[in-house]
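So, does this match?
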Amino acid sequence: MGRIAAIVNRSHNNYNKESVGFFGFFDFINDPSVARALVDAAAKILKERGLTIMRGPYNPSINDDCGVLTEGNDRPTFISMPWNPTYYAEVYKVVGLGMIRTLYAWDVPLHAEPPARVTKIVNWLKKRNNVSIRTIDMKNLNKELETIHHLYNQCLDRNWGFYPIALDDLLHAAADLKAIADPSIIVFVCIDGRDVGFSLALPNVNEVFHASRGRKGIFRFLEMVLRLQVQKIKTDRLTVLGVEPAYRDKGLSALLFFESFRIAKAKYEISEVSWVEANNVEILEAAELMGGHHSRTYELYEKAL
């Protein structure tokens, strides 16, 4: 038993000038023959559409949850990060999918004080660049989402597999997340009063979902609703952080990283930074400097068609 989706992402291919097909929502029992049949079926569909590579898993795009969990399967994952059994990684190899990218999750404990030299550098950066920090204004949410849309497409252009997100897609995602979002951990960095970067963190509501696993059907749903109202969520996930290209040499990414954790500390105990490409030295070193440690590894795969 299993399932797979063959995905044609025209926005990705048009922007990146590629002919890549994608696969996602890929689940299977511990039987390579089942996984192979599913992969072959998806590959056939994508090849018929003139695509030359199959890449994934994306559920359904790089802007959603993606990757195969290869380290850290022993505990629940954070919000919008996938979980799978340990046998998945080996079966991926057996059916001819080759690993192409490694993604990390890092846990950063928020109880400890940051190193004094980090605080000193951050304060110097603020004074030197006339920098200010603010959180999202929920009373002007539509305007704020337009700002996030602009910054997202400006700030994340260096990421592998990036393509610009449409405003309608962002608004749709925001509508889904509005019920769980915590405005205090959606942060903007400004120079001379103009927004030039942002970070987006979300409360890890998977804590609630995991705690409700013992219930079935409507009773589980009711318990989750109740827990969302009364249970204190102890962790959050830093999902996006970026600064406009013109300001990347001013240390603002490090400043925004620091300020995001400082603000989250008021409510949360641990922030997961995910996902981060293994070659993103700037963010990984910053997470380590803040006392973080590598907690999970995800892999992306592809095969020629």
Observations:
- The chain is about 35% helix and 30% strand.
- The radius of gyration is 20 Å.
- The CA atoms of residues 115 and 289 lie 8 Å apart.
- The first strand starts at residue 2 and ends at 7.
